[in-house]
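agent> Task received from the user: take the single chain below, predict its 3D structure, and emit structure tokens. No templates, no multimer pairing.
agent> Plan: (1) validate residues, (2) run structure prediction, (3) serialize to tokens, (4) report one or two observations.
agent> Step 1 OK, no nonstandard residues flagged.
tool_call: predict_structure(input=
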Amino acid sequence: MNKQEIEKAIDYFKNAHIDYSNVESGVIAERVCNLAISALTQQLNDGWIPVSSGRLPKSEERVFICADRKRYDRKIVQIRTTAMYEDGTMRTDDSGFSWEDCEFEYDEESNDYIIPEGWYEQNMYCEEFGIVDDFVTHWQPLPKPWKETV
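)
tool_result: status=success, residues=150
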């Protein structure tokens, strides 16, 4: 599908008349339309998912991010890198990563620290994290690992 066809299909699903005389069928039809809109929008954006859509990756899932960085001359440049999102509910003991030198809020109930919500960048061969302090605008899943074909 080209861009025009995708935009037309999105418009079709956004304006689809859903018959709610049978509530269950209407709810299912609405979900199908929303899924179609989401899939088509992702295709239209080359897989980039806007953070503003409310769709965020699972906590600690490595993804590509696109962020706006304001330079010293006030120009904005796009930064693209791998990162992960934390939703603010993960405790350090439940995390798949080491957060030893980080100063997080202590939760007496669980006797553990809560990882603050936000985007974190980690170099692939390093155990240190850096908080992404630029404005993250979009993200997309990493491609599946390469496999040798026989």
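agent> Step 4: summary for the user.
The CA atoms of residues 142 and 148 lie 18 Å apart.
agent> Done.
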